[in-house]
Amino acid sequence: MESETIISKQFYTGSNSADVQISPSIFKINNNSTKKHIERPKSAFGFMILAGTFLLLLTGAFFVFQFQPDFDQLHLERLNSTGGIIFLAVTVALFLFKGGMFLYNLYLYFKYKPIESVSDELLPTCTVIVPAYNEGKLVYETLMSLAESDFPAHKLELLAIDDGSKDDTWYWIQQAKIKLGDRVSIFQQPQNKGKRHALYRGFNLGKGEVFVTVDSDSIVKKDTLRNLVSPFVVDEKCGAVAGNVQVLNNEKAILPKMLNVSFVMSFEFMRSAESSLGSVLCTPGALAAYRRNAVFACLPEWIDQTFMGQPSDIGEDRAMTNMILKQGHHVLFQRNAYVLTNVPEDYKGLYKMFIRWGRSNVRENIMMAKYVWKDFRKESKVGARLLFTEQSIRIIMTYPFFIFMFYFIATHPLLFISSALLGILIVSSFSVLFYAKRYSFTEAFWAYSYSVFYTFGLFWIAPYSIITAHKRGWLTRG
User: Fold this and answer.
1) Which of 16, 68, 122, 356 keeps 20 to 30 A from 167, CA to CA?
2) What is the pTM of this model?
3) Where exactly are the transmembrane stretches of this chain (predicted)?
4) Chain-wide mean pLDDT for the chain?
5) Domains and CATH numbers, the chain
């Protein structure tokens, strides 16, 4: 906890000079560009993980070369059967579509530029809502970082809402109130009703033209808020904005190190591409902003949302994004609006988080299907439809791929393992190069370890999430 406090304080109290340094993870953030160069100490265990990953991937590549006659024989057997030809045709079609989408996203990424902060006079009034449940002292650090924001005080309203916590969260919210006085208003739910209901209370209490939601285990940079809300001034069609989420606790365990690289790809590459289309599919709970009238246009539907007859108590961020897109608004991403957030440090916590995300993805893709092929916005809808199609194909092909994978393992285990490792080496190299260019060369190699870990340790998440999409429960709240 102490190390997190040190990191967070140095993160949000940096000066307005060109470079802001944060220790022990030394961030150098140049205000003229969003590039950060990260230097982190390596542990012996971490080095062993990276070395083992390289050895494993190179071994896989070697065995693909050694087993080339077996791969050729397998290919001929498929070509000599109707089922094999159909499988090959489907595989080639999917490969071409995925390859085309990758090139399209790459083009959109280079086209993307974050919107620069507008002047204090043009900034809209802003209500920041921080829902908290069993976060302890972290909620205090979150509120302190928000209070230190470079944002006109008379235009900023902070609301902290304790969602019936069972630990000392309410105590730390009260301590923040003592420290900040009238700058923050605090509220306590009579019982735990879930994050969606805590946010709903904040939406109804807030007076700002823009609502910002921040998770209670997240720390923002001084200029994050002004960068986050500036698109609402520049683009009158903007209904929501996603922040740039990175990992706070990546010095504490191996999984957060891996996830930090994954988050950079998810946000700085994919959401940059989606933002170029005005169609970011999910504004993250860790940091997101919404235009007031867009929220209230869908608030009754959002709070009463159900799935298969059950109240929706997960995926509130994706649901809100979906409903705002449906109204015809643009949803954008601000790469220059940084937030550091905590992620699970063990396998159990991680797979529970991914299951929740997977279930939400299935639910909201079904919802999106109801409007994405209609005339939901005046300008081009092709990009949004392509993004939807890509996600839908991924969901639809989950079980066919799952069945094929187990058949391949049962019939040709060595061919499967070696080809999977070579595929990881090839595909993940883009993530490595992307992270190395944006941040740190040495840290980038965690992309390989994460891909190996996900392929062999979390492959079951997608099929399990689909078949259990109807289930309720946050899973990681305890």
Assistant:
1) 356
2) 0.89
3) 44-65, 85-107, 393-410, 416-436, 448-467
4) 91
5) 44-111+396-467 (no CATH), 126-389 (3.90.550.10)
